[in-house]
């Protein structure tokens, strides 16, 4: 690190509190300052090139220098840089984006609502679900089911639905009545000899038993990422979602698909819901919606959710929820152009093909003594590191091995992400075959 006074690194240490950082260690270690991006690559302020094998944070589908998005933003900035969507106000880009998203939905959806981050979209989903239960006179129907290893954001409600310990410790979170199920990770959670099918059946039974024990009339919704991302890229058994949905339908429990990572191509189809045959009542989207060139997020709700909300807003006089930047015109214009690029270039098809190539490359590392499991679907993959394959254990301190390998990969010019000891590889959707091969070669180095 450059520790000269007034270097860019020293100023970062002096003035910037980073998200998700050991703030004390950062005082010594300092930042990695990224200066520019191009395609799947980013370059630090010393000119070193890295493959951005996380697409930022699963975000930058179209790569790091897509001029069409710059143009879309500039044109909209010049025409109408801001307007809001409260009360009856609207504008062209938000109307067009609403129509576009509803048209893309894998199951019939009624309305789109706009927010600025995945966490805000999750909060909004939760609030709309509670609002709906009250609208229906089901005042008890408020409990939410999530899974262990879930990540649904960091606002107070989002963090409550998230199951990762770091998001809870020392934060005094207050949302009650969150029920946590086993994560659908066969390799880690299955009983000895249990097939994927049997495992999925057991998890559906766990869900049903929990609902019955709590009282189905008290359970409002199940939130789930089609493939859990930040929890370590947990790829569920093929029949898991079908079995879960059967239970939810039986007890009139809403299903929220958190597509913040999976949406817009990541799993090799347009939505994780398509990959797994999920029929959600609410879909939450962000990240690749705008390739994160600007902060964007949205929800879609179906008619079953919309109708009671509409009635309740009429009874109260307003739906008292929304953000100053809900449906921001520049964000909407960028999102629309981004979706156009994803469709025109068939980046979803590319994610499927390149994902297979990447997984083949990662599977070739399976015999390495530190590799416990290789898993993935589409362009979301992970290599789980262990020091003992039989016990599936890593070093004494969870995450220590992941941190070591992460640092090594950074040296080798690969930006990955260690989720405890699972290394995630989820590059931009534009990645080419040669670039996948280069990534795999760098992992071997
Ligand atoms: N939901 C999922 C599945 C996510 O992966 C994330 C972020 O990574 C969020 C919600 C929260 O999104 P944000 O960080 O934009 O608040």
Automatic annotation (TrEMBL):
Entry GO MF terms: adenosylmethionine-8-amino-7-oxononanoate transaminase activity; pyridoxal phosphate binding
Signal found in the keyword field: no
Known cofactor(s): pyridoxal 5'-phosphate
Keywords: Aminotransferase, Pyridoxal phosphate, Transferase
UniProt xrefs under InterPro entries: Aminotrans_3, Aminotrans_3_PPA_site, PyrdxlP-dep_Trfase, PyrdxlP-dep_Trfase_major, PyrdxlP-dep_Trfase_small
PROSITE patterns the UniProt entry points to: AA_TRANSFER_CLASS_3
Family annotation (CDD domains): OAT_like
Gene3D superfamilies: Aspartate Aminotransferase, domain 1, Type I PLP-dependent aspartate aminotransferase-like (Major domain)
GO BP term, example: biotin biosynthetic process
Pfam families referenced in this protein's UniProt entry, alphabetically: Aminotran_3
Entry similarity comment: Belongs to the class-III pyridoxal-phosphate-dependent aminotransferase family.
NCBIfam families xref list: PRK06105.1, PRK07480.1
Protein name, per record: Aminotransferase
């Amino acid at each position: 690190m450059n520790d000269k006074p007034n270097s860019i690194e020293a100023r970062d240490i002096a003035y910037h509190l980073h998200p998700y950082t050991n703030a004390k260690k950062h005082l010594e270690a300092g930042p990695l300052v990224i200066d520019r991006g191009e395609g799947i690559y980013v370059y630090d302020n010393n000119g070193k090139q890295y493959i951005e094998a996380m697409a930022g944070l699963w975000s930058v589908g179209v790569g790091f220098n897509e001029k069409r998005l710059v143009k879309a933003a500039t044109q909209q900035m010049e025409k109408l840089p801001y307007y809001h969507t409260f009360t009856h106000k609207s504008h062209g880009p938000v109307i067009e984006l609403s129509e576009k998203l509803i048209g893309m939905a894998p199951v019939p959806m009624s309305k789109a609502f706009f927010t600025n981050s995945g966490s805000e979209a999750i909060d909004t989903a939760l609030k709309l679900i509670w609002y709906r239960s009250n609208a229906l006179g089901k005042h008890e129907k408020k409990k939410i089911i999530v899974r262990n290893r879930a990540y649904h954001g960091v606002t107070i409600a989002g963090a409550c639905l998230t199951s990762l310990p770091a998001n809870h410790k020392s934060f005094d979170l207050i949302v009650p009545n969150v029920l946590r199920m086993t994560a659908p990770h066969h390799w880690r959670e299955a009983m000895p000899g249990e097939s994927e099918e049997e495992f999925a059946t057991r998890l559906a039974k766990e869900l049903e038993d929990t609902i019955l024990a709590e009282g189905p009339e008290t359970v409002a919704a199940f939130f789930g990422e089609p493939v859990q991302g930040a929890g370590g890229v947990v790829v569920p058994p093929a029949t898991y979602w079908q079995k879960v949905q059967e239970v939810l339908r039986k007890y009139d429990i809403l299903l929220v698909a958190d597509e913040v990572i999976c949406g817009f191509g990541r799993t090799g189809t347009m939505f994780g819901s398509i990959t797994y045959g999920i029929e959600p009542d609410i879909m939450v989207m962000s990240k690749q919606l705008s390739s994160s060139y600007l902060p964007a997020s949205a929800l879609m709700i179906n008619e079953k959710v919309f109708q009671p909300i509409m009635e309740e807003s009429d009874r109260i006089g307003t739906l008292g929820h929304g953000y100053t930047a809900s449906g921001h015109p520049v964000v909407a214009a960028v999102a629309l152009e981004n979706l156009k690029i994803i469709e025109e270039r068939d980046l979803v098809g590319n994610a499927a093909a390149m994902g297979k190539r990447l997984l083949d490359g990662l599977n070739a590392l399976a015999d390495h003594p530190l590799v416990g499991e290789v898993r993935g679907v589409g362009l979301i993959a992970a290599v789980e590191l262990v020091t003992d394959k039989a016990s599936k254990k890593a070093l004494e301190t969870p995450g220590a091995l992941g941190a070591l390998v992460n640092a090594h990969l950074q040296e080798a010019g690969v930006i990955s992400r260690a989720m405890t000891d699972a290394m995630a590889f989820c590059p931009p959707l534009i990645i080419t075959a040669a670039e996948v091969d280069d990534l795999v070669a760098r992992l071997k180095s």
